[in-house]
Amino acid sequence: MTLSEKARLRIMSAINQIFFDYAAAEKQAAQLDELAEKLSNISTSDMEKILADVDAAWKGDNAKAFLQKGSTIQNKINTSAGELKKIAETIRTISENLHKADEDAVVLVSGK
């Protein structure tokens, strides 16, 4: 059983749409990586400096509580950055799997 030319064109059109979505997914993964890097930098440099400045300028129980809260926030920012990196990698893995399936479908539909 062979596909009619019209059916092949419809399938190829659908496959081309999937390729476009693949490119969009790659772009989104790159944006997530960029955001994760920014968060990581905020946590490691900006937060470190802020907490060090507060520690040098403010003493007492309230200062200690503030620094502990700041450290907790810093850890949460680091965790969020790591999670964003994992999400970006998952998007890439799924996109690569779909891309491979799309290529296989093209070969199957084209009869090559």
Structure notes:
By secondary structure, this protein is an all-alpha fold. The protein has a single domain (7-110), classed as Orthogonal Bundle (Helix Hairpins). Helices cover 92% and strands 0% of the residues. It contains 2 helices and no strands. The protein has helices spanning 5-57, 61-110. The longest helix is centred in the N-terminal third of the chain and has 53 residues, at 5-57. It is rod-shaped. The protein starts with a helix and ends with a helix.
Quickly describe the structure.
The chain is built from two helices and no strands. With 112 residues, it is mainly α. The radius of gyration is 24 Å and the shape is rod-shaped.
SSE diagram, text form:
Elements: H1 5-57, H2 61-110
Question: Which terms would index this structure?
Answer:
112 residues; single chain; Helix Hairpins; mainly alpha
Sequence stretches where pLDDT stays below 50 over 5 or more residues: none
- Distance between the ends: 15 Å
Based on Cα principal axes, name the global outline: rod-shaped
State which percent range the strand residues make up: under 5%
* CATH architectural type: Orthogonal Bundle
Helix content: over 70%
Q: How many distinct folded domains? A: 1
CATH class label = Mainly Alpha
Number of strands: 0
Cα Rg: 24 Å
Structural class: mainly alpha
Report the total helices.
Answer: 2
CATH topology: Helix Hairpins
Taken in chain order, the helices and strands follow as HH
Mean pLDDT: 88
Oligomer: single chain
